[in-house]
Amino acid sequence: DVKVTQSSRYLVKRTGEKVFLECVQDMDHENMFWYRQDPGLGLRLIYFSYDVKMKEKGDIPEGYSVSREKKERFSLILESASTNQTSMYLCASTPETSGNTIYFGEGSWLTVV
Amino acid sequence: GENVEQHPSTLSVQEGDSAVIKCTYSDSASNYFPWYKQELGKRPQLIIDIRSNVGEKKDQRIAVTLNKTAKHFSLHITETQPEDSAVYFCAASMGGRSNNNDMRFGAGTRLTVKP
User: Fold this and answer.
1) Using CB atoms, which residue from B46, B100, B108 is nearest to A42?
2) Cβ of A45 and B108 within 8 Å?
């Protein structure tokens, strides 16, 4: 059973703080994703990684960066958190080829005050 | 890029009735269409998917239909039960050798099944 684990479920951070959201998957998947989920907007892709140290911008990368130093781990970084980054963040992974199930983590609720 | 629109945004049905959620997509190259269910506080999970070489797929009370000419696909849930209450997302991607980074999601439909 595929497991995608997000280490923090609920966070409250102050404006300007640096925030790290960590994600680990245990199925040796090549592809990992960070999505942002907001009511009425669905799931929007922030960043994508297809291999260690490789990353591609998604639809809304502004204000975010990512790190993938190991195949199983994909981190989302908010360099200077702002209130408009208050949201639910979902990590996901999938095997190399497309048309495969995307496996999601449980989500991280981030509130920036 | 791909754009997926999903309707309705909310849907309330009586237990035992059917529910239909519709999605349209813009990129005629898309050929993989999954549906995800997200219960309150839980992760989205795949419930059914369809590829462009078929027009319909069923799995017990759930079915998905695809009209490639019109670029729309629908989720049908029959004999709804309270545990079907959740947010449902449709998505579209090109499949094939892409890495799923082209997958785009609809805005979601909140389905409520009243006992």
Assistant:
1) B108
2) no
